[in-house]
Amino acid sequence: MEIQLACELPRVQNMVHVQGSAKPRLVTPGEVIYQDTSFMRGHGTYMEEGVQVASVAGYVTRVNRLITVTPLRQVYQGAVGDTIVGRITQVQTNRWKVDVNSRLDAELRLSNIQLPGGEQRRSNLEDERGMRGLLREGDLVCVEVQKISDDGLLRLAARSIKYGKLSQGTLLAVSPSLIVQDKQRMHDLPCGARVVFGANGYVYITPTVPQEQASTYTVNFEEVPVDIRKTIGRLRNCIKLLAIHSIMISPTSVTSAFDMSVEQEYEIKDLLKPDVMQDVAMATVQMLNE
């Protein structure tokens, strides 16, 4: 049995606590946040005996006089404008039901997608009959949150060429709270793969393709080169080890973990070993703090 201590790694042996910006304040349910009654109560808080108390475990956010507590772990609630990844679960009349890692399946209407060929017209009966030819159960899609109903149902849209059906890749589910909030969700990494960091916690890794071919409704059966498949597998395992060690997932952290695993000459399968996961995670944190 081969055992390697994290302290034996060259980049980790001198690791110390890095002086950085102030750490966010963490609170637990029932903990008093502020006794000043002039603050406004936001999500994750309630008033008891004239003081503001946390109702969930998370970190305190203050915007002017508004105090909120953002949970460390929560079910994806959705926000208008979010780019997310989902899986088709059901084909209905004029709409698809989509699993988006939330408490309810989202809804994607036929009228809210860009028809094949980029045609700008109203969908007709023929389009409705051919819905299963565009998207069927099990297909993965990249979509945008267009609207949130009063009952929490997410209404989706895919009216741009950057949205649509996903193919030839792998899907990984992580906690939505670990995905760094960013306007740009699709990134072509230097290692030769495209990663879609869905705001709902679904991360999709696919070979880099031209933008005009990125989102279509046809299945690409071309063989993916072995080196690209290995790159996708390494990225997938790097994202998984970051999630297991509660490290925020972003293009920077994923690229750092990928480069570190290559530098240490770890095999792709070895990245699933607990001790190797810890080594790469610690080295990634050190690299990000340098």
From TrEMBL:
Gene3D superfamilies: 2.40.50.100, Nucleic acid-binding proteins. GO terms for molecular function: RNA binding. GO terms for biological process: CUT catabolic process; exonucleolytic trimming to generate mature 3'-end of 5.8S rRNA from tricistronic rRNA transcript (SSU-rRNA, 5.8S rRNA, LSU-rRNA); nuclear polyadenylation-dependent rRNA catabolic process; poly(A)-dependent snoRNA 3'-end processing; regulation of gene expression; TRAMP-dependent tRNA surveillance pathway; U4 snRNA 3'-end processing. InterPro entries: Exosome_cplx_N_dom (IPR025721), Exosome_RNA_bind1/RRP40/RRP4 (IPR026699), KH_dom_type_1 (IPR004088), KH_dom_type_1_sf (IPR036612), NA-bd_OB-fold (IPR012340), S1_domain (IPR003029), S1_RRP4 (IPR048565). The keyword RNA-binding applies. Belongs to the RRP4 family. Keywords: Exosome, RNA-binding. It is found in: Nucleus. PANTHER family: EXOSOME COMPLEX COMPONENT RRP4, PNAS-3 RELATED. Its main location: nucleus. It comes from Penaeus vannamei (Whiteleg shrimp). GO terms for cellular component: cytoplasmic exosome (RNase complex); nuclear exosome (RNase complex). Coiled coil: none annotated. Residues 81-159 form the S1 motif domain. This is S1 motif domain-containing protein. SUPFAM superfamilies: Eukaryotic type KH-domain (KH-domain type I), Nucleic acid-binding proteins, Ribosomal L27 protein-like.
